[in-house]
Amino acid sequence: MTGSTKKSVVILGIETSCDETSAAVLVNGTDLRSHIISSQIVTHQKYGGVVPEIASREHSLHLYLVVQQALDEAKVNFSGLSAIAVTYGPGLVGSLLVGVSGAKAMAYAAGIPLIGINHLEGHIYANFLDHQDLEFPLLALLVSGGHTHLILFEAHGQYQVLGHTRDDAAGEALDKVARTLGLGYPGGPQIQRVAQEGDAFAFKFPRAMLEPDSLDFSFSGMKSAVLNTLNSARMQGDTLSVPDIAASFQQAVVDVLVRKTLIAIERTGVKTLLLAGGVAANSLLRETLENSLSEHNVHLVCPPPIYCTDNGAMIAVAGYYHYLAGDFAPWTLNAVPGLELV
User: Fold this and answer.
1) C-beta separation of 277 from 143 below 8 A
2) Strand order in the sheet with 83-89
3) Which of 166, 168, 256, 335 could cysteine-pair with 219, CB 3.0–4.6 Å?
4) Residues 165-209: pLDDT tens digits?
């Protein structure tokens, strides 16, 4: 940082919304000096999903260590930070409270600003780590375990939700089907792995499109169709191919996501789509979108897979743009588990 006429903006990003304790140090919005993730996947696998009480306890045990490792790797201390950005919602309230309380204490002690970040916004901003020259307006398809949104991103900090899930999110549906198939947790990666050996057209699961003018999503009925197919087979003593079930369901989910996205693109006229969220790491979704968008001269931007799941780097980059806008949080910042993106 020495020798520069302009002081660098150094953001510490903290993410604890679910079962990943993560911290990252980002300089000037592009230079990621460190990125640490402490995953709880192994801890929760025995339960088939995230146990909120255990998640918050694990965050309490690991937050300080993760932050300190991020600072050490970046070769910076608290006095060298410009601000601390932290996820304050949506997510599990206990997990969020650990991150928010820790970030408030650190920022207050260091005498630097605190920045509250919407978790959904963080996922979208993961795309800016490698693409700072994106031109607005942009369309974002956010697909994760808890959320499925189509968002018109008109400028930094300006969002319009065009469509959202009315029941299960895409990632949640994938997790539930994976659990029913005995594939374990987390379900999305397991579905993708097993589906590689299956026939995506072996089963004709429904594609819920809702009303003709709606950009909302619904995956509950699609999930139920899989469960009904499995139950009917068991009652009749039949054995179905797990890879075929996985491949067919994955294809159905991807088909709906892509169709709705194409409708949104036609309506908005945007030329760039940002893919975000944990399900954004799904290779079939990426490939199908890439092929479909190329036919419409629309550019697809995807984060590397490690920045699709929950991570501190995405919170740091979102925090950088909040910092530039002077958008700081009060010391009364609290966890908001049902926070909306507005």
Assistant:
1) yes
2) 31-39, 20-27, 10-15, 83-89, 114-118
3) 168
4) 999 999 999 999 999 999 988 889 999 999 999 999 999 999 999
